[in-house]
């Protein structure tokens, strides 16, 4: 799906083209022609007695052109014209990375769902499907992790084979794999995030800009004399203190960041993700300065895919303590019974069981 600006332009072009085409066709019908002449002569003081055929032809042609422009979209038409004129460079490709952690699997991104700046590019789909591994009881985390760890090399191969490559990132997967995917593609790599609109059943690209103010908050919940600390990122839902301490006992504190009243479908703009990720990074930086050596940070996330990906990009490979992100299962005991080390050495040792 195109973004909101492209939809508005296409709607306006369609309405204008329909109106102009209607005028052109009406002049070919005696009844409509007489009515049109009477209207023009009466309201504009004109003395027309006949509408020339060339005028009708111009209206019909212009109307058809506007309707075609509305159907294909201004961005795609402009690129096509530039290509035919020999003034455009090859548009490159978009590598659409889709993380799949749940069944049934939603479809891939289409060209029309990319923002206009990526229009005209070829889409190459790169799917990390770990839904079968994660649906097992217990989940086959080693196999799922092995698939995820291949992703950077797969992306590097595609980037090396093409001169102009953009990344798009989407999917529906458990929080640890969201953060790990973001960590694998650190901040120097641009990536267009898309979220699945479950109501319209289509992918929606995050819009540029700051977007509505989510008014993020932060507070510290002191627990005891433990060594490790936890971060609870609450965007879509609240995260229960009981669930956290049951899963990871012996914590010194829980730092809660996110929204005062978590809710679904509130993240719509890239600037919102940037702000939430910066809040998460600031919390990690503070914990780095106050936790004892060897302490770990346990991360619990209730947020959309784009936010989880953005959080993972904030984790430092060298500066921060060991960060472990956990997956939630309300039917499990404890509810956060497994996690992944985000900035630990890659391999089976990243898997954590509670």
Question: How does this structure look, described?
Answer:
The chain is an alpha/beta fold. It folds into 3 domains: 4-85, no CATH class; 93-205, no CATH class; 216-353, Rossmann fold (3-Layer(aba) Sandwich). Helices cover 40% and strands 22% of the residues. It is built from 11 helices and 12 strands. It has helices at 4-26, 30-44, 53-72, 74-85, 131-135, 141-149, 151-161, 175-184, 241-247, 270-290, 305-312, and strands spanning 93-100, 122-129, 165-172, 191-197, 202-205, 216-222, 228-234, 251-259, 296-302, 322-327, 338-341, 351-353. Strands 6-8-7-9-10-11-12 form a 7-stranded mixed sheet, with helices on both faces. Strand 7, helix 9 (241-247) and strand 8 (251-259) form a beta-alpha-beta unit. Helix 1 runs antiparallel to helix 3, helix 8 crosses helix 11 and helix 10 packs across helix 11 (305-312).
Task: Describe this protein with a few key phrases.
354 residues; alpha/beta; 3 domains; seven-stranded mixed beta sheet; 12 strands; disordered N terminus
What secondary-structure arrangement, pairings included, does this model have?
Blueprint: H1 4-26, H2 30-44, H3 53-72, H4 74-85, E1 93-100, E2 122-129, H5 131-135, H6 141-149, H7 151-161, E3 165-172, H8 175-184, E4 191-197, E5 202-205, E6 216-222, E7 228-234, H9 241-247, E8 251-259, H10 270-290, E9 296-302, H11 305-312, E10 322-327, E11 338-341, E12 351-353
Helix pairs in contact: 1-3, 8-11, 10-11
Describe what is shown at a glance.
This protein has 354 residues and is of the alpha/beta class.
């Amino acid at each position: 799906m195109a973004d909101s600006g492209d939809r508005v332009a296409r709607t306006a072009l369609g309405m204008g083209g329909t109106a102009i085409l209607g005028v052109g066709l009406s002049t070919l019908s005696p009844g409509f022609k007489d009515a049109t002449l009477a209207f023009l002569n009466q309201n504009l003081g004109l003395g027309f007695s006949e509408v020339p055929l060339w005028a009708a032809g111009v209206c019909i042609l212009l109307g058809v052109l506007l309707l075609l422009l509305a159907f294909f979209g201004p961005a795609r038409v402009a690129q096509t014209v530039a290509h035919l004129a020999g003034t455009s460079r090859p548009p490159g490709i978009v590598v659409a990375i889709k993380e799949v952690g749940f069944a049934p699997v939603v479809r891939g991104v289409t060209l029309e769902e990319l923002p206009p700046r990526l229009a005209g590019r070829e889409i190459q789909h790169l799917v990390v499907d770990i839904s079968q591994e994660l649906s097992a009881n217990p989940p086959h985390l080693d196999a799922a992790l092995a698939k995820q760890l291949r992703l950077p090399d797969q992306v590097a191969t595609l980037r090396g084979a093409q001169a102009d490559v953009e990344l798009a990132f989407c999917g529906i997967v458990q929080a640890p794999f969201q953060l790990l995917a973001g960590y694998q593609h650190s901040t120097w790599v641009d990536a267009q995030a898309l979220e699945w609109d479950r109501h319209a059943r289509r992918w929606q690209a995050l819009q540029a800009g700051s977007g509505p103010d989510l008014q993020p908050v932060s507070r510290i919940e002191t627990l005891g004399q433990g060594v490790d600390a936890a971060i609870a990122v609450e965007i879509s839902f609240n995260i229960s203190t009981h669930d956290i301490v049951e899963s990871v006992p012996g914590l010194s504190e829980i730092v809660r960041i996110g929204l005062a009243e978590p809710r679904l479908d509130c993240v719509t703009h890239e600037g919102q993700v940037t702000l939430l990720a910066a809040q998460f990074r600031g919390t990690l930086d503070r914990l780095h300065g106050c936790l004892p050596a060897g302490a770990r940070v346990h991360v619990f996330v209730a947020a959309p895919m784009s936010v989880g990906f953005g959080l993972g990009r904030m984790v430092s490979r060298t500066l921060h303590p060991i960060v472990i992100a956990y997956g939630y299962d309300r039917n499990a005991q404890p509810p956060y019974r497994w996690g992944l080390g985000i900035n630990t050495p890659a391999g089976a040792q990243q898997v954590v069981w509670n």
